[in-house]
Amino acid sequence: MYELLHLLDGTLPDGSRVDLTIADGRIRCVAQAKEPSERGSLAVASAGFEDAVRTGAVSRETTIDLGGRLVLPALVNGHAHLDKTFVGSGWQPHRPGTTVGERVTAERAIRDELDVPVAERADALAAAMIGFGTGTVRTHVDIDPAVGLASLEAILDLQDRLRDTLRVQVVAFPQSGIIASPGVGALLEEALRAGADAIGGLDPLGFDQDAEGHLDTVFDLAARYDVGVDIHLHDLGEPARRQYAMIAERTRRHGRAGRVAVSHAYGLGSIGVDQARRVGAEFAATGIAVMTNGPAGPMPPVLAMRAEGATVFSGSDNIRDAWWPYGDGDMLAVARQVAYQSNFRTDEELGVALDLVTASAARALGVHDYGVHEGAVADLLVIDSPSPAAAVAAHPASRLVLHGGRIVAAQLASAHVLAPITLDAMATRP
Q: What is the pTM of this model?
């Protein structure tokens, strides 16, 4: 931990140029950026962006000249599955399946064949997330009769080991259902006793065929252990709308406002915008957030839901696992995917996409003291991008990642080079 870290000449999302001072893991000062001639001793001590990254900026008082680069709060991944990933274990060909049940069955078979432990694969994916600038991730961890609490224990260990570089929220997730898998209810309770931060659910009607029983188990445990709720809901049409109403009713009854999320909510993209707006207003009133990762199918109408006051946020969902062969852990890529699927084009709309992986996701996950302001925790992402819209629309060439005021990762544009034969063919060199 530096006693003092000065970040000079950064650009905030509103376009203002600022100097930041960080101490004890928090932003202590945000001031209008000084001209180089006005910096005094800081100018003498300052290191260029790339030099600071290469050296690790290890002195007790460190000054880094950001050169006008964009400064964002660290990205928030509101929905991931660290225990499922194949990252770190070699490529696994995708096995087709059209229904949730078929995908669960295929996943079980692949899980039994993997010879790389959950801990190693989760570590590899977490490292990639940190490198891209994620400061907080919510990961759902499978709890079922076959795996028991083994995966949970591995992820809770990761949560502890990475506490200085990545904030990890753990959701006990009944991937095989609750009613359909006798004994899972008791396992979920054991998971909460072991330290899970929230309890999950999965298609109470479409998968478990008993929405009342499934939701009662989830919300009763959430109230008893005072944790949040995050329910995967893939169902479409009227069945989805009915389940949204049931979730809202239980959120009110159990006093869970602000601590409930409906993940995916494909149904909101299948019931018409006017109906979705009514659900959005109900969710806003009851404090229920909606997670979307921009799937290749129905998805919540992001702008309409936000217009009704509902919190909408994003997560990566599955990354290179039995469900999905894509992904690398970059939440800016997820923001771009959501923007693309939503037909966002203006700077304002692209700014909304960025908000889904920053402030809105932090609010949905209950991350406190978040942002780029005095008193905030110094979880920051510095990127080589001229604006928030550009950060979403194009892949930034360089990144500097801070967690609690420490530099924890970096990427440099200079790591990517063109051969002379290519450079010589160009009219102007990049």
A: 0.93
